[in-house]
Structures are given as C-alpha cells and as structure tokens.
Amino acid sequence: MPLDLKNYPLLANINYPEELRLLKKQQLPAFCNELRQFLLKTVSQSSGHLASGLGVVELTVALHYVYRTPFDHLIFDVGHQAYPHKILTGRRDQMHSIRTFKGLHPFPWREESEYDVLSVGHSSTSIGAALGMAIAAEKEQQNRKVVAIIGDGAITAGMAFEALNHAGALHNDMLVVLNDNEMSISENVGALNNHLAKILSGNLYTQLREGSKKVLSTIPPIKEFAKRTEEHLKGMVSPATIFEEFGFNYIGPMDGHNVIDLVETLSNMRNHSGPQFLHLMTKKGKGYKQAELDPIRYHAVPKFTPDQELPKSVSNTPTFSQIFGEWLNDMADQDEKLTAITPAMREGSGMVSFSKKHPDKYFDVAIAEQHAVTLAAGMAIAGLHPIVAIYSSFLQRAYDQLIHDVAIQNLGVLFAIDRAGIVGPDGPTHQGAFDLSFLRCIPNLVVMTPSDEQECRDMLYTGHTLNTPAAVRYPRGVGAGVPVSQSMQKLPIGKAKRIREGEKLAILCFGTLLQQALPVAEKLNATLIDMRFVKPLDKVLLKELSDHHSQFVTIEENSIAGGAGSAVNEYFMANKIILPVLNIGIPDQFIEQGTQQQIYHLLKLDSEGITEQIQAYYN
After folding, report:
1. Cα–Cα dist 379/325, whole Å
2. How far apart are the first and last CA of the chain?
3. Which of 86, 198, 283, 284 is catalytic?
4. At 217, is the pLDDT very low, low, confident or very high (cuts 50, 70, 90)?
5. What's the pLDDT at 235?
6. Active site residue 284
7. Per annotation, catalytic residue among 86, 361, 397, 532
C-alpha cells in the first residue's frame, strides 16, 4: 500500500517536476530531507535498491528543478540510483510495487514513463546514448538539453570512455554528471570548492574563457600557454586534466549534497555550449547511518525495519554463488597458478572470502567485462589458470572477446556463469536467457549445466582441469539442497546421467529444472536424463534413447531459440532420426520482473506447467 503522506507536507503536493519548480529555492533542503525519508521508508517496506538512491537525492531534485523535464532529457546510468527520479515523476504512490510482478520496474524504463528517456539495467550506456540525443537535439533546434548521470563505478567501463572521446570531438551541447561516491566528502570539497565551481560555471568566466580562446587561436604559442595555465589553475583544486583532454569543460569537484549550490551551478551550466562535465562528491547511503557505514550491504535490501540492524539471510541451503566461492577457495589451495577475475561482482559472485584469503590471486577489473575476458586470455597464454566469474547477462557484453581472444586460441579459461536463467525482480535486463544459445555455437568450448550443488562443484573442477575453454552456468539462488562433499570428481566429457527409466517418453533435462522434471517423469512414467553437457552432447545416449522411445522432451532454463533443445533437434535431423521433440524453455520474448517462482509458473517451467505442455503436445 502507498505510504501515508501526512509526515511529508512538501512531498505530498508534488507529483511531477513542474510542481517541484514552484518551490522556492530555500525550500529545497527541507524537501530533500522529506524525499530521503520517504525513500527510506518505502524501500524498507517493499525491498529494493536503497543506498544508491539515498546518495543522489539532492542531485535528482536539482536536475528536475533546473531542467525542463521531460522536454529536456535526463539519462540515468544503470538505474540503481533512479528511485528518487521515479518518486518525482508521477510514480510516488506506486513505489511500494517496485521490483514486484506487474509493479514498477526497478530501473528507468521507457514504457513506464515519458521521463524515463533510456531503458537501462547494465552500466556505462548513458554517455553514448546522451550523445546520440544531443546530436538529434542540435538538428531539431528547439534548445533541448541533454544530461547523462553516471557513477564512478560505471565510468570505468571502456564504452563510457569511448563515448567521452567521441563527444569531445563532436562538441555537441551536453552535460555529463559524475556521481563520485567512492569516498566521503573531504575537506577540499567544501565552501571554497563549491564557490569555485559556481564561478567556473558562471557566464563571466565562460565568456572570458571562450573569448580568450578565439583571440589567442591566431597565436599558437600563446594559445598553448593559456591552455596550460588554465589546466594548471584548475588542477590545483580538481582532477580536471583527463576530462579536459577529452574536450569537456570540467567543473568540480563539488558537494553533491548541497542542493542550493547544485541548482545555481546547474543553472549556469544549462546555458553553456559544447560538452560540459560536472564532478560531484556524494556519499552512498546518505542520511541513513547504517547504509553510510555499509553501502554494499545496503545496496539492495529485503524488507527491513530502519531502526534495527538489517537481518542477515539465514538458509541451511547454500546458494550456487556460495558453492562457487567455496570451490574457488578449495581449488586455490591446490592450484598455485589459479587466478580469479570478476567485473565488479565480488559479493554477487560469492568471492568475498576468496578475495581475503587469496588476494594475490584475486582480480577485480571494475565494470569492464570485455577486459576481464581478454585479461584471462593473457593469463592463460602466460601459463596461469584463470577463472572468470561473471553473470550471464554481463557475459553478453564480452562476446567478441570470448570468441576472438579465448576460443579461437583454444585457451584454458573457465567461465563460472552465475545468474543463468530466470533471475527474478531485476527483470528483462538481467534475465540469463541467452547464454546457452550464444555459447553452444562457439568451437572449442565445453558447456556444462549442473542440476544440483554437488554437480556444480564437480563441473567447476572438471572445467578447470581441461586446459581448454569451458563454461559452467548455474542459476541465482539455492538448488535442491543436495549435500556437497569436499571431494571433487572429474566428470567424463559429454556424458549424460540416467535418473529414471521409463517407457515411450524421454525427458532430457539441462540444468536445475531437473528438480521440476522429477515428479513429471514419475507421473508420466517417462525416462529422465540429466544431460549435464550442452556441448558436447551425449550422442551415444541420444541414439540409444531414440531406438527405444517414440517421444522426446527437452527442458532448459534458456531461450528455446538456439538453445540446448535445438542442439538435440540438430543431432536428430543430421542422423535422419525422425521423432517428435517438444522443446520447453524460455519463449521468444523478454521476460518481465517477478519472483523466480512467479516467472516459472508464468512460463510453465514448474512441474505443473511442464506436465501441461507435454500432455498438450502429445495428446
């Protein structure tokens, strides 16, 4: 249910930015306080991303106060920090539904609001998209402004720097706001620095700066001297040089929590021409002590009570991420050449313990998936044994590197692919729906799909010992609760496992949906196979099964198009085995948000739905 707004008198009267702009500038600090408390209360009751949004309250208010949204375009990077934006743009009373089935999307989403200019979920796309919009804005000549808001983590990605480089060369009007929350606001980011930012963004300074460039452009030595002098003066108070070299006018760093100074600086910058760069220092989790002290833990939270410690998740069943992390520690104790790489997913991929126990073997490359894979290729060439821990949907961003740098050279890199299949509340941008389809077409690559925790551990061990490209893909969350032994078994490559003998119908299962298929096989008296390997397939077993069964079903938590079931179809057709095969998996559509159980039911991937699909196809 929506929150009662009696404790939020200013916020209660503001549903859209045009109403926000009716406030006096002196009212904005009080309004920001209400917005921050409303955000904290809402997320504590609904779950969701918290610390990032708390850190950008003042920035979001200032941007909507100064810019004529939605005519002016605000492009948020990633979107974790977009909750205050949603509250200010007509969705305040729906915030309780965020990240739920049929509720508000967890990130900016074009279909949800005209204020959401770019649909996002993955990082580092904002500057490139903003440049495209800035080019269009110049052509339409309606004085539309474009702003990209990017975090210090997202700007580490190569495509962010590619976009900066291009924007500086084209010189279109646009503003990039860097939300720098890696450190608390230091002493040099105080009154003096904020005052300097306002001066540097003001009209007088800008006119002098641009006018001097024009006058001095005919005298190259003096022009170069003036440029160096300007850089030197700025460099004494800010890390301006790199962004100036890209062709941006750099302003900052300044306090990202002083809303009045932000409004004045943004008002100045809105009228500037060419690419502008505003560097803000913010504190992730601002205004909520627990989140300030532990922003990682409070990045995304379950329902909780704000005046109490965030409860730790308690489960007797380890997640697949934890299975991977424990295996990684055990394997590192045995293999001195092991290295593990993650693109800023240490916590999500279960690598916290490993990073502390084996810091010399742990490499976090920040949000740079392409680099992560090529780094692994270099390590493998040099004789190390690299493992890339990466989410399924993030591996999409490094596809060329997987092919060009690893597979073509047949290098011993193991890909531990987390969040494969249905991920739940994060929605279409994070569903791991495509990895089997885009992996199985790559030569030299072994692709494995564990059905339970022990099999996951064994497959990781198997892939690590191959000395050729290998991938183990496993889902988010817990498995069937199969006990995991400390031993590790090397599996025979391309060999499936019989689970149950039946008649007429053979069910071939790839991955953890085997647990859903078990009662189906019992009910239909079907043969059930844990296929284990998508590539290579167990062709000997497939031929044997085709001699004794007249009906086949493949089950996978991946897109049906081009997936594991398609591999079975291709084998049958190539060998002139003409038998009906029902492929069950993720349909040819992007999958919405909801709990994993809700989505399994919606897609008929639970036991009931699988039975229904089989009976409808074969009856």
Report:
1. 21
2. 45
3. 284
4. low
5. 47
6. yes
7. 397
